[in-house]
Amino acid sequence: MTFPVRAITLDLDDTLWPFAPIGARIDQVLHDWMQVHSPRTAAHFPLQAMRELRERSFADNPHLHHDLSALRRLTLQQALAESGGDPDLLDAAYEVFYDARNQVECYPDALDALARIAARVPVAALSNGNADLQRIGLMHHFVFQLGSREHGAGKPDPGIFHAACERLGVDRGEVLHVGDHIEMDVIGAARAGLRSCWINREGLGWDHHEPRPDLEFTDLTALADWLDASSKNASSQDAKEHAA
Prior knowledge:
It comes from Pseudoxanthomonas gei. This protein is an alpha/beta fold.
Protein backbone atom coordinates (compact mmCIF):
# COMPACT_ATOMS: atom_id res chain seq x y z
CA MET A 1 0.00 0.00 0.00
CA THR A 2 1.25 3.46 -0.91
CA PHE A 3 -0.19 6.79 0.29
CA PRO A 4 1.24 10.26 0.91
CA VAL A 5 3.01 10.81 4.23
CA ARG A 6 4.03 14.39 4.93
CA ALA A 7 4.87 13.90 8.62
CA ILE A 8 5.16 11.21 11.26
CA THR A 9 4.20 11.09 14.93
CA LEU A 10 6.21 8.48 16.78
CA ASP A 11 5.62 6.67 20.05
CA LEU A 12 8.69 6.17 22.27
CA ASP A 13 8.47 3.39 24.91
CA ASP A 14 8.46 -0.07 23.31
CA THR A 15 8.75 1.53 19.88
CA LEU A 16 12.24 3.08 20.00
CA TRP A 17 13.39 1.16 23.08
CA PRO A 18 12.00 -1.57 25.37
CA PHE A 19 10.61 -0.22 28.62
CA ALA A 20 10.78 -3.38 30.78
CA PRO A 21 14.53 -3.16 31.49
CA ILE A 22 14.15 0.56 32.25
CA GLY A 23 11.39 -0.16 34.77
CA ALA A 24 13.43 -2.88 36.47
CA ARG A 25 16.47 -0.60 36.70
CA ILE A 26 14.39 2.23 38.14
CA ASP A 27 13.09 -0.02 40.91
CA GLN A 28 16.56 -1.25 41.84
CA VAL A 29 18.26 2.16 41.66
CA LEU A 30 15.57 3.77 43.84
CA HIS A 31 15.76 0.95 46.37
CA ASP A 32 19.55 1.21 46.57
CA TRP A 33 19.28 4.97 47.04
CA MET A 34 16.69 4.60 49.78
CA GLN A 35 18.91 2.11 51.61
CA VAL A 36 21.55 4.83 51.90
CA HIS A 37 19.42 7.96 52.37
CA SER A 38 16.24 6.63 54.00
CA PRO A 39 16.86 3.14 55.41
CA ARG A 40 13.45 3.07 57.09
CA THR A 41 11.77 3.54 53.72
CA ALA A 42 13.88 0.83 52.09
CA ALA A 43 13.04 -1.58 54.91
CA HIS A 44 9.34 -0.72 54.91
CA PHE A 45 9.08 -0.84 51.11
CA PRO A 46 11.36 -3.48 49.60
CA LEU A 47 11.19 -3.86 45.83
CA GLN A 48 7.87 -5.73 45.58
CA ALA A 49 6.17 -3.58 48.21
CA MET A 50 7.23 -0.42 46.38
CA ARG A 51 5.82 -1.81 43.13
CA GLU A 52 2.54 -2.56 44.89
CA LEU A 53 2.43 0.96 46.33
CA ARG A 54 2.99 2.39 42.85
CA GLU A 55 0.20 0.25 41.40
CA ARG A 56 -2.11 1.32 44.23
CA SER A 57 -1.31 4.98 43.62
CA PHE A 58 -2.10 4.50 39.93
CA ALA A 59 -5.42 2.79 40.67
CA ASP A 60 -6.44 5.39 43.26
CA ASN A 61 -5.66 8.43 41.08
CA PRO A 62 -7.19 8.03 37.62
CA HIS A 63 -7.19 11.82 37.21
CA LEU A 64 -3.37 11.63 37.05
CA HIS A 65 -3.04 8.82 34.52
CA HIS A 66 -1.92 11.32 31.90
CA ASP A 67 0.87 12.55 34.21
CA LEU A 68 3.19 9.70 35.13
CA SER A 69 5.68 12.10 36.70
CA ALA A 70 3.07 13.34 39.16
CA LEU A 71 2.10 9.75 39.96
CA ARG A 72 5.72 8.81 40.60
CA ARG A 73 6.18 11.80 42.91
CA LEU A 74 3.01 10.84 44.73
CA THR A 75 4.26 7.28 45.20
CA LEU A 76 7.59 8.48 46.58
CA GLN A 77 5.84 10.95 48.86
CA GLN A 78 3.59 8.19 50.21
CA ALA A 79 6.53 5.84 50.73
CA LEU A 80 8.46 8.43 52.73
CA ALA A 81 5.42 9.40 54.78
CA GLU A 82 4.28 5.86 55.60
CA SER A 83 7.79 4.74 56.57
CA GLY A 84 8.60 7.75 58.69
CA GLY A 85 11.17 9.02 56.23
CA ASP A 86 12.21 12.64 55.75
CA PRO A 87 9.70 14.34 53.41
CA ASP A 88 12.44 16.72 52.27
CA LEU A 89 14.02 13.80 50.42
CA LEU A 90 11.22 13.81 47.83
CA ASP A 91 12.90 16.01 45.22
CA ALA A 92 16.20 14.14 45.45
CA ALA A 93 14.44 10.76 45.21
CA TYR A 94 12.49 11.92 42.18
CA GLU A 95 15.68 13.06 40.46
CA VAL A 96 17.21 9.62 41.06
CA PHE A 97 14.12 8.11 39.43
CA TYR A 98 14.17 10.52 36.49
CA ASP A 99 17.85 9.98 35.78
CA ALA A 100 17.31 6.20 35.66
CA ARG A 101 14.15 6.59 33.60
CA ASN A 102 16.08 8.38 30.85
CA GLN A 103 18.84 5.79 30.56
CA VAL A 104 17.47 3.93 27.56
CA GLU A 105 18.88 1.29 25.25
CA CYS A 106 17.30 1.54 21.83
CA TYR A 107 16.34 -1.49 19.77
CA PRO A 108 19.19 -2.48 17.41
CA ASP A 109 17.34 -1.16 14.36
CA ALA A 110 15.99 2.02 15.91
CA LEU A 111 18.71 4.66 15.69
CA ASP A 112 19.70 4.17 12.06
CA ALA A 113 16.08 3.85 11.01
CA LEU A 114 15.08 6.96 12.96
CA ALA A 115 17.81 8.98 11.26
CA ARG A 116 16.63 7.79 7.85
CA ILE A 117 12.99 8.53 8.63
CA ALA A 118 13.74 11.99 10.06
CA ALA A 119 15.76 12.85 6.94
CA ARG A 120 12.71 12.01 4.82
CA VAL A 121 9.83 13.70 6.74
CA PRO A 122 9.34 15.75 9.94
CA VAL A 123 8.99 13.49 12.99
CA ALA A 124 7.24 14.46 16.23
CA ALA A 125 7.43 12.37 19.40
CA LEU A 126 3.99 11.56 20.80
CA SER A 127 4.01 9.70 24.11
CA ASN A 128 2.01 8.98 27.25
CA GLY A 129 5.29 8.38 29.07
CA ASN A 130 7.71 10.81 30.66
CA ALA A 131 10.93 10.21 28.75
CA ASP A 132 12.97 13.34 28.02
CA LEU A 133 14.51 13.24 24.55
CA GLN A 134 16.89 16.07 25.42
CA ARG A 135 18.35 14.08 28.32
CA ILE A 136 18.47 10.93 26.23
CA GLY A 137 20.25 12.77 23.40
CA LEU A 138 17.78 12.07 20.58
CA MET A 139 15.91 15.36 20.33
CA HIS A 140 17.81 16.38 17.19
CA HIS A 141 15.81 13.80 15.23
CA PHE A 142 12.45 15.39 16.20
CA VAL A 143 10.72 18.67 15.42
CA PHE A 144 9.03 18.55 18.83
CA GLN A 145 8.02 16.24 21.66
CA LEU A 146 4.40 16.25 22.86
CA GLY A 147 3.55 14.29 25.97
CA SER A 148 0.26 13.53 27.67
CA ARG A 149 1.32 15.58 30.70
CA GLU A 150 1.87 18.67 28.56
CA HIS A 151 -1.33 18.15 26.59
CA GLY A 152 -3.53 17.23 29.56
CA ALA A 153 -4.72 13.91 28.11
CA GLY A 154 -2.99 10.92 26.59
CA LYS A 155 -3.47 8.52 23.74
CA PRO A 156 -5.89 7.19 22.60
CA ASP A 157 -7.72 10.49 23.20
CA PRO A 158 -8.01 12.07 19.73
CA GLY A 159 -7.10 15.50 21.08
CA ILE A 160 -3.41 14.72 21.50
CA PHE A 161 -3.19 13.44 17.92
CA HIS A 162 -4.99 16.51 16.63
CA ALA A 163 -2.73 18.84 18.62
CA ALA A 164 0.33 17.17 17.10
CA CYS A 165 -1.05 17.55 13.57
CA GLU A 166 -1.79 21.22 14.19
CA ARG A 167 1.75 21.85 15.41
CA LEU A 168 3.11 20.00 12.40
CA GLY A 169 0.88 22.04 10.09
CA VAL A 170 -0.15 18.90 8.21
CA ASP A 171 -3.62 17.52 7.50
CA ARG A 172 -4.46 14.50 9.68
CA GLY A 173 -4.84 12.17 6.70
CA GLU A 174 -1.24 12.86 5.67
CA VAL A 175 0.26 12.19 9.11
CA LEU A 176 1.37 8.64 9.90
CA HIS A 177 1.36 7.67 13.56
CA VAL A 178 3.84 4.91 14.41
CA GLY A 179 3.70 2.88 17.60
CA ASP A 180 3.62 -0.53 19.25
CA HIS A 181 0.37 -0.39 21.22
CA ILE A 182 -2.78 -1.57 19.46
CA GLU A 183 -5.32 0.51 21.40
CA MET A 184 -3.22 3.56 22.22
CA ASP A 185 -1.34 3.89 18.94
CA VAL A 186 -3.05 2.01 16.12
CA ILE A 187 -6.74 2.32 16.99
CA GLY A 188 -6.28 5.72 18.65
CA ALA A 189 -4.59 7.20 15.60
CA ALA A 190 -7.14 5.74 13.18
CA ARG A 191 -10.07 7.10 15.18
CA ALA A 192 -8.39 10.51 15.23
CA GLY A 193 -8.18 10.51 11.43
CA LEU A 194 -4.46 9.77 11.05
CA ARG A 195 -2.81 6.97 9.12
CA SER A 196 -1.48 4.23 11.40
CA CYS A 197 1.60 2.03 11.44
CA TRP A 198 1.89 -0.84 13.91
CA ILE A 199 5.42 -1.79 14.94
CA ASN A 200 4.68 -5.39 15.82
CA ARG A 201 8.04 -6.66 17.06
CA GLU A 202 6.54 -9.78 18.66
CA GLY A 203 4.59 -10.94 15.63
CA LEU A 204 1.23 -10.76 17.36
CA GLY A 205 -2.01 -11.53 15.54
CA TRP A 206 -4.74 -8.98 14.92
CA ASP A 207 -7.83 -10.06 16.87
CA HIS A 208 -9.72 -6.77 17.03
CA HIS A 209 -12.95 -5.70 15.38
CA GLU A 210 -11.37 -2.39 14.36
CA PRO A 211 -9.83 -2.12 10.87
CA ARG A 212 -6.23 -3.25 10.60
CA PRO A 213 -3.50 -0.58 10.57
CA ASP A 214 -2.53 1.01 7.29
CA LEU A 215 0.97 -0.43 7.73
CA GLU A 216 2.47 -3.18 9.87
CA PHE A 217 6.18 -3.88 10.28
CA THR A 218 8.34 -5.85 12.69
CA ASP A 219 10.84 -3.01 13.08
CA LEU A 220 11.54 0.59 12.13
CA THR A 221 13.99 -0.35 9.39
CA ALA A 222 11.09 -1.77 7.39
CA LEU A 223 9.22 1.52 7.80
CA ALA A 224 12.26 3.49 6.60
CA ASP A 225 12.49 1.16 3.58
CA TRP A 226 8.79 1.71 2.86
CA LEU A 227 9.21 5.49 3.00
CA ASP A 228 12.18 5.31 0.64
CA ALA A 229 10.25 3.14 -1.82
CA SER A 230 7.17 5.38 -1.61
CA SER A 231 9.29 8.44 -2.34
CA LYS A 232 10.87 6.76 -5.37
CA ASN A 233 7.45 5.71 -6.66
CA ALA A 234 6.12 9.25 -6.24
CA SER A 235 9.13 10.70 -8.06
CA SER A 236 8.73 8.19 -10.88
CA GLN A 237 5.03 9.01 -11.20
CA ASP A 238 5.76 12.74 -11.30
CA ALA A 239 8.33 12.17 -14.04
CA LYS A 240 5.83 10.18 -16.11
CA GLU A 241 3.19 12.89 -15.72
CA HIS A 242 5.58 15.62 -16.77
CA ALA A 243 6.73 13.53 -19.75
CA ALA A 244 3.12 13.07 -20.84
